[in-house]
Amino acid sequence: MSPASSPVDAAEQPPAPEPSQAQPTGPVNGLDRFFKITERGSTVGRELRGGLATFFAMAYIIVLNPIILGSAKDMYGHQLDNGQLVTATVLTAALSTLLMGVIGNVPIALAAGLGVNTVVALQLAPQMSWPDAMGMVVLAGVIVMLMVATGLRERVMNAVPLGLRKGIAIGIGLFIMLIGLVDSGFVTRMPDAAHTTVPLQLGTGGHLTGWPVLVFILGVLLTMALLTRKVPGAILISMVVMTVIAMIIHAVAGLDPKAWGLTTPQWPGNPVALPDFGLVGKVSLFGGFEKVGILTGALFVFSVLLSCFFDAMGTILAVGDEAKLTDAQGNLPGVNKVLLVDGLAVAAGGGTSSSATTCFVESTAGVGEGARTGLANMVTGGLFAVGLFLTPIVTMVPSQAATPALLAVGFMILAGSVKAIDWSDYTIAIPAFLTMLMMPFTYSITNGIGIGFVTFCVLRLAAGRGREVPIAMYAVSAVFAFYYLMPALGLT
């Protein structure tokens, strides 16, 4: 079924340009030609809106990454400076995102990876110095680049069957929807003191209370209404409107800044903050191995590598598919350039002490606005660069105003991918099903991919169709199986 023949697919396409803005049949200038804007059915306006939407959807990382890394101590009791962490986080995100736009020409922004920064802060740093820990991140990035150079990483991606790729995309859609619900406070973690097996609850204490949650609910309704009406810039319009409303509510109601979470919707007293580059280059490549030994050090690098590799793979496949950049087999043309930049970003994150930098699933917010090229990354990366000096301003958009975009994009991913899975073939349907469930339920893209891969290989063997499975899939599944068995083997 072609995209034009499906009402669901048609609904997820960016709104058609107004008659006065009809797209030309060929590139109109050098910018258009370089980024292939017209060729991919986009416009400069859509790319600009998409870049803005992606930035606001992921700007929370400027605050969150320093909190995660800054709250941990290395084996000597040293903590990283918060101001320096902000600079390192913003600098690496800006450079990596700009590089991805210029080299990869895809609307995929990058920043410090959540999950990986926790591994660095809680597993690596306590057993070595901070430079040692960041050196292991750099090594993981170098290995990723070597895998790209040898073609191994692309072969692994191309070995994934189309049905499982769709399962990965759906899983990411569900995952970002859960992220949106949690970050907004619409869903919260059930405290252990409750002595219940139920992990999540509605709002606080099972009830929706407080102005911030109302802002989120209104934002979701506004976003969905604008999408239903096919209003150009629906996601970005909703973000801006709800940010203004949140600022008014915060000022009038006199709310505690903590009520909004990491970012508070108020104009900062001092909007300018000078960057501090003190952490850049503070790296010891092999010092960690002297502290923990060769085997443990290698396992640490392996853990960082695995998370970076497959988190990025899942995001690239999902964003590429949602942006209609993939071919009939679900492959992304020119993916090797995208993977190379991702490897560079991992190493750069270690080099600046901001932890591994990787592709962000929040890029789907920009794709939902119509972004199809690297020009959107120029906007996102440029805003991160501005954030080096204006961090207080760029972090005043509350998560309650930005996260409705994640629910909207999650819906569009699901709507466009569910029907592409052959549900009659259990050897692909069950792995795809497990993949899409495990991502949100384990709060990890990597776990969802790993469980799906292992299940796919086992079921194909059980069905007597083992020869249909590419060797690369067997190899990667064996790596995942080893990774999951590491605790049982006493290797963690």
From TrEMBL:
Region (Disordered): 1-29
InterPro entries: Azg-like (IPR045018), NCS2 (IPR006043)
Coiled-coil region: none
Parts of the chain that traverse the membrane: 50-69, 90-113, 133-152, 164-188, 208-227, 234-253, 294-319, 375-395, 401-421, 441-463, 469-486
Domain of life of the source: Bacteria
Record membrane topology: Multi-pass membrane protein
UniProt-recorded Gene Ontology molecular function terms: purine nucleobase transmembrane transporter activity
A GO term from the CC aspect: endomembrane system
Subcellular location: Endomembrane system
Pfam families named in the record: Xan_ur_permease
Family per similarity comment: Belongs to the nucleobase:cation symporter-2 (NCS2) (TC 2.A.40) family. Azg-like subfamily.
Protein name (Swiss-Prot/TrEMBL): MFS transporter
Source organism phylogeny: Bacteria, Bacillati, Actinomycetota, Actinomycetes, Kitasatosporales
